[in-house]
Design a protein that fits this description.
mainly alpha
Length: 86
């Protein structure tokens, strides 16, 4: 709570046990940002929202390819720097 405030200015509701450490609560609350960032990247960076087909099969193929591209980029981001030949 900010020092100049008489009461908290923001609240989070949770169904976690009352004994959950504050550090865990903060980590879970911050995870929302990561999820929103990933969704934004899927839509704008990888074209999740570009499908204009009319069939379930076409949509399924599109989403599968976008998901595979996201997985590839995530693995590249998390991998240690690979040595590349000059």
């Amino acid at each position: 709570m900010p020092e100049d405030q008489d009461a908290p200015t923001g609240y989070w509701t949770s169904n976690l046990p009352a004994a959950t450490p504050v550090a865990d609560l903060v980590r879970w609350a911050k995870m929302r940002w990561r999820i929103e960032h990933d969704y934004r990247e899927l839509k704008h960076g990888l074209g999740l929202d570009h499908f204009e087909g009319r069939t379930w099969r076409g949509w399924h193929h599109h989403v599968t390819l976008v998901t595979a591209a996201k997985a590839f980029l995530t693995l590249r981001r998390l991998a240690p720097k690979a040595h590349t030949p000059a």
